[in-house]
Specification:
Largest sheet: 6 strands, antiparallel
Number of helices: 3
Radius of gyration: 19 Å
Structural class: alpha+beta
Order of helices and strands: HHHEEEEEEEE
Strand order of the largest sheet: 1-2-3-4-8-7
Number of strands: 8
Number of domains: 1
Mean pLDDT: 89
Helix content: 10-25%
Strand content: 25-35%
Shape: globular
Amino acid sequence: MSYKKFVATVAFAAATLAATPSAADVDAEKAALQQIRAVSARYHSLTQAEKGGFLATNECVAVPGLGGMGYHYVNPARIDTKFDIAKPEVLLYETAPNGKRRLTGVEYLVVDADQNLATAGDRPILAGHPFDGPMPGHAPGMPIHYDLHVWTWANNPEGDFATWNPAISCP
């Protein structure tokens, strides 16, 4: 084997290993997904979601070329500067073929403590996945925040913790 081919092989192997999550990371991710499924399972019922304090935004969110997030149901009482895996702030739904809304995942939303877009010292992390942000609010009065989408009930070709899901579209 030539020296150049050897160096290329070693570089490829190193890059592959660096991109491969450790067994501990995979175990933490599986445990988090299992816990999120357990705490969100009852919200397959919109009635239970509404009884749980979740309010429909009634706007389906999608971006051509990226995918969708679907409909957001927000629980305002849960939105603060703390993160609790057992209490997602937002539920995500898509329109099923029968016309009803189907639970696809959750979104964790954490208010940025210092309300400064230039700092990120309080960025939450879930199972090795840092939250997106800080970012400005998406509606009037919404604070600077971090968020993380978790696709627990719908397959996402981009990954369970990707922001956009190309398998989700809006009617």
